[in-house]
Structures are given as structure tokens and as C-alpha cells.
Amino acid sequence: AQKVTQAQTEISVVEKEDVTLDCVYETRDTTYYLFWYKQPPSGELVFLIRRNSFDEQNEISGRYSWNFQKSTSSFNFTITASQVVDSAVYFCALSGRSTSGTYKYIFGTGTRLKVLA
Amino acid sequence: GAVVSQHPSRVICKSGTSVKIECRSLDFQATTMFWYRQFPKKSLMLMATSNEGSKATYEQGVEKDKFLINHASLTLSTLTVTSAHPEDSSFYICSASRGRGSETQYFGPGTRLLVL
């Protein structure tokens, strides 16, 4: 079975602090894809990153960075020097082939990040 | 870019009526579109997957006759909630991807449905 676990339900930090959002996944597929999305209060999911299972290089994009470790089945997301605008719910997702042969996302339950001024 | 729009953004309807929600990919051709439902402070629940020109594939527990999905073109999919009831009130989100495989899904802004 495929599963994504985001154990942190809600995190509160003070502006300028660094924060790491955890994501642990389970899959039997050898080829799979991992994603992070941001859902601000407006509701729209904003795509942040896509990573395939063969690429374990960490990635940095501005204040965002991602740490993919297959050995621990984790794909953690760090925001450096957090800002109030980072307040949102962040979802980690796993894309894998379903029993019907189609690909679909398995979402984690999300982590609500509150950045306080 | 990869922009997906949804219309309407909010809708209030009476119990027993039908509501149609449109999902459009504005700057790319979407071979596959997905419809999700999200309850307050919960994760997204996949309702169905639709490929252009073919019937939608519904997830277990989702009533096909109640949630009609049409993917008539590479840029448009519609979800019709038939004979809506108050329990159908929810946030409905569509997404679109360029291919049928592992491509990234791009999400629309969502539609808040309230059934009175």
C-alpha cells in the first residue's frame, strides 16, 4: 500500500526562524514521484517541487530547500528565515501507479504552518 | 506557466438542484484531469480521474450518478453535482496534468459549494 505521513499537524514559528516540515512515505514501487504543495488561506494549491525516486540530490530554491532520503523514505521541506506570507497548509504527495495502471496522488494530511510576526 | 481555472469560485444552491463546476487548463493541454473534494482542515480526497475523450474513473465510494464528470476537450472538464444535498457541501478542487502518467498536477483555485 502507498501512504504519506505528515506527523506534524500544526507548527508555529516566529518570523525569521527556520522550520522543517517532515514527510515520510511508503511505497513498493521502484519508480515514483514526490511533491510538495502549498495551500494558502485562499485555497488554491501551489506547486512547489517534484522529485523522482532516482534523483536524491537535495534542492534549494531561494528560502526553500528539500532533503530527499530514500534510506529513510523521507522528503523533508525546510523554509529558511520564515516570513508571515509562508503561513499556509503544506501538503506532501506521492505519485505512483495504482492497481488500475493509472497514476494518482496520495496526499499526506498536511501541516499547518503559522508564522508569527 | 501552467494555469488552471475553476468556475464558479463559490456557489450556493437549494437542495435537490444540480450544480455544474468547470475546470479549464488555460495555457496547456490537459490529457488528464482530476477532481478532489476537501473537507475543512482535512486533506484532499480524490473523487475521480478523467482522460480526454473517455469515461472518468471513479474512486471507491464515489457515486458516479451523483457526481457526473465530463472531459470533452483537452482544456475543459466539468463536474456536475446532481440532486445536491447539504452533505454535498464542500470545497471541490480540480487539477490538470499534461500526460496520463506521472506528470505534475496543477490545481485550480477550488469551488466552495454550499447546499441549503
List keywords for this structure.
heterodimer, B: mainly beta, four-stranded antiparallel β-sheet
Structure in words:
The complex is a heterodimer of chains A (117) and B (116). With 117 residues, chain A is mostly beta strands. Chain A has no helices and twelve strands. In chain A, the strands form three sheets. In chain A, strands 2, 5, 6, 10, 11 and 12 form a six-stranded mixed beta sheet that branches. Chain A is globular, with a radius of gyration of 14 Å. The model of chain A has no long low-confidence stretch (mean pLDDT 93). Chain B has 116 residues and is mostly beta strands. Chain B is built from no helices and eleven strands. In chain B, strands 2, 4, 5, 6, 9, 10 and 11 form a seven-stranded mixed beta sheet that branches. The radius of gyration of chain B is 13 Å and the shape is globular. The termini of chain B are far apart. The relative contact order of chain B is 0.33. Chains A and B meet through strand 5, strand 6 and strand 11 of A and strand 5, strand 9 and strand 10 of B.
SSE layout and pairings?
The complex is a heterodimer of chains A (117) and B (116).
Chain A: E1 3-5, E2 10-14, E3 19-21, E4 24-26, E5 33-39, E6 46-52, E7 59-61, E8 64-69, E9 74-79, E10 88-97, E11 103-107, E12 111-116
Parallel strand pairs in A: 2-12
Antiparallel strand pairs in A: 1-4, 3-9, 5-6, 5-10, 7-8, 8-9, 10-11, 10-12
Chain B: E1 4-7, E2 10-13, E3 19-25, E4 32-38, E5 44-51, E6 57-58, E7 67-73, E8 76-81, E9 90-97, E10 106-107, E11 111-115
Parallel strand pairs in B: 2-11
Antiparallel strand pairs in B: 1-3, 3-8, 4-5, 4-9, 5-6, 7-8, 9-10, 9-11
Distance between the amino and carboxyl termini of chain A: 41 Å
Strand % of chain B is over 45%
Output the structural class of chain B.
mainly beta
Number of separate strands of chain A: 12
> How many helix segments of chain A?
0
| Main β sheet profile of chain B | 7 strands, mixed
* Mean of residue pLDDT values of chain B: 93
Order of helices and strands of chain A: EEEEEEEEEEEE
Shape of chain B: globular
Mean pLDDT of chain A: 93
* Relative strand content of chain A: over 45%
Q: Based on helices, strands and strand pairing, what is the structural class of chain A?
A: mainly beta
CA(first)-CA(last) distance of chain B: 37 Å
Largest interface, with counts of residues having CB < 8 Å to the other chain, equals: A-B, 25 and 23 residues
Number of helices of chain B: 0
Overall geometry of chain A comes to globular
The whole-angstrom Rg of chain A is 14 Å
H-E string of chain B: EEEEEEEEEEE
Multimeric state of these chains?
heterodimer
The helix content of chain A is under 10%
The portion of residues assigned to helices of chain B is: under 10%
